[in-house]
Amino acid sequence: MNDIINKWYRNHALLYKVLLFLSTTFLIVYLFPKSGKFRYDFDKGKPWQSESLLAPFDFAIKKSSKEIDQEKNEASDRSAVYFDIDKSIKSSILDAYSEKFKTSFADSVINKNRNLFKVGQTTINSIYEFGVLDEDYEYSESKNVILVDGQTQDGETQFSNLTKLDGFRSIIENELSANGLSKYDATFVSLFFDVIKPNLKLNSSLTQNALDEKLEAISSVRGSIEKGTLIISKGEIVEGNKYDVLTSLETEYESQVWNDSNYNLIIFAYSLLVALTLLMLLLFLRKYRMEVFLDNTKVTFIFFNILLMILLTTLVINYNSKYVYVVPLCILPLVLKAFFDARLGLFAHVLTVLLLGFIVPNSYEYMFLQIIAGIVTILTVSELYKRANLFISVGQITLIYIIAYFAFFVIQEGNITSIDPSTFGLFVICGLATLFVQPLIYIYEKLFGLVSDVSLLELSDTNTKLLKELSNKAPGTFHHSLNVANLAEASANEVGANAMLIRVGALYHDIGKMKNPTYFTENQATGINPHDELSPRESTKIIIDHVLDGIEIAKKNNLPDRVIDFIRTHHGTSLVYYFYRKEKDLNEETKQEDFRYPGPQPYSKETAILMMCDSVEAASKSLKEPTSTKIDKFVESIIDKQMEDGQFLNANITFKEIQSIKKVLKAKLANIFHLRIEYPE
């Protein structure tokens, strides 16, 4: 049982990666839309590139959304409007008119105009022939109207025949004018305003039901294609009816592919492709970024960011696929470059774009634009902690998006007249969203315990608590660290390494000397050497322990692992030669292994550079009457000895880069010793 537990414990990191791999694959497949993928790509107005296509099964030709919308509008115009009519109101209006008429006109006027009363009655009958509306309705004059009395249909007319509540004025005036009684217009209008009441009210329920019936009767298809029918031949232009037929086939194909019988099989196929893509990422990490592969937190971080980009893109596509370019996909390579390196950032970005190619419309166009934008991101964004650099790079990325999309549009459409300017606005929004990378990096640093160039900039401040403590307890070591930082930064700039990272590593690489500062020559101001009282083995232990002490101090002060790597590797497995020779003189059987640093050896370009600069700077203090020739030989001998000792075998640094670093160190030391470089005559 204990053996099983021990075996599980030894392999728990690998088991975690397997679980992470499987869970990420599952989540990505779960996020993918559940529809099949049509095997042919086609664009409107472009030639059909594949072989001649025959209908694989019977299917209907679907109408375009524009056609369906047009038919819906026509159905809405034809659909009748229902009004409830109250016929009892007319008789009460006539009674009210009779009473009001007597008070509105003098007897002399009534006696003089015997038909005046009858004109009013005729007008009321005319107004209530179809009815008076209770409010203003926005219907066309020709709109068909059905009048309903209770549960029965009372009549049918046009909306123009209905009288608005204040629309009887013209009817009164026309009637009075026809009978030569126009001088009584004002009195009649005032009288009618008092007595006229609406008797028509919109029946919303019947009106909506009638409209729904009309809309339901609209067919979403027009005609059908039988199995085996030639749809399009190779080289034919995809346009008009052929485009509609191909679009219908694509829709029908995708709906038929995902049925109950083969659903699980297709899910399995999707899972294989996603798993294969993620496996490529793990293999890349294992082969080229072993330190990342061994750190489960970093692997989780990379998988999380890929999953986040896929989630955001899926949400946008489910809402409206036309906004797919709003998703700031270039944040992914930016973030990974900030925490790791450009090569890993670009590799992960390309894999993510390949995965998204399954679900986005116009997948080739999308993948081309996103991969090009990712490459531009990697090439242009440097020194992310400088805000101006980020703004300039985002502007360049946005410009690349716009240029590439414009070129694709012209290729597909053959003109620029129908281009939608709002699409360019989506790219601008995407660029602005990319600026969110700064706060996002800060959040990631806190969540995952990673370090970016922004954090490195803060750590490079010599007023930090730890560096102040170093300057107080071991001033010589602090001065040595500053010199090494300057040498290392200049060397890093020469060979394209991370100058900010190496400067911070150089500032902290010797903090372990704070524990026993007087045992290191740079801090022995009085000339008294405590090693004189110790054996060579005891002295060697103190010297070597400054690496272990430095790692312990760094962890207590929460320094990032990338900085601790410099403390751990700055001596590699080199030999403490002075005390080894001293012990060798006393005991011929002394082994070198007892006097070597525990390592590990430098395993990056930056840690290798620091090792060179640290050794050269420390040993330069022993130079007597330095000249340019002496400095050249001195630098050559120290670095060549480290190379012969195999200290740089695990670091990705070339001979050419080492020669460039030697050149920088020679020039810098010559400046430190105020020497003029000797040029050949």
Walkthrough of the structure:
By secondary structure, this protein is mainly alpha-helical. 61% of the residues lie in helices and 5% in strands. The chain has 29 helices and 8 strands. It has a 4-stranded mixed beta sheet with strand order 5-4-3-6. Strands 1-8 form a two-stranded antiparallel sheet. The protein has a two-stranded antiparallel sheet with strand order 2-7. α4 (88-104) packs across α8 (185-195), α6 (116-127) packs across α7 (169-178) and α23 (499-508) packs across α25. The protein is elongated and about 150 Å long. It starts with a helix and ends in a 9-residue tail after the last helix.
Using brief descriptors, characterize the structure shown.
single chain; 681 residues; mainly alpha; 4-stranded mixed beta sheet; two-stranded antiparallel sheet; 8 strands; elongated
Task: Bin the helical content.
Answer: 55-70%
Question: What does the overall shape look like?
Answer: elongated
Summed over residues and divided by their number, the pLDDT gives a mean of 83
* Distance separating the two termini: 79 Å
Question: Which residues sit in consecutive blocks of at least 5 with pLDDT less than 50?
Answer: none
In what order do the strands lie side by side in the largest sheet?
Answer: 5-4-3-6
Whole-number radius of gyration?
A: 43 Å
Total DSSP E strands: 8
Treating each run of at least 4 consecutive H or I residues as one helix, how many helices? Answer: 29
How much strand? 5-15%
Biggest pleated sheet = 4 strands, mixed
Class computed from helices, strands and strand pairing: mainly alpha
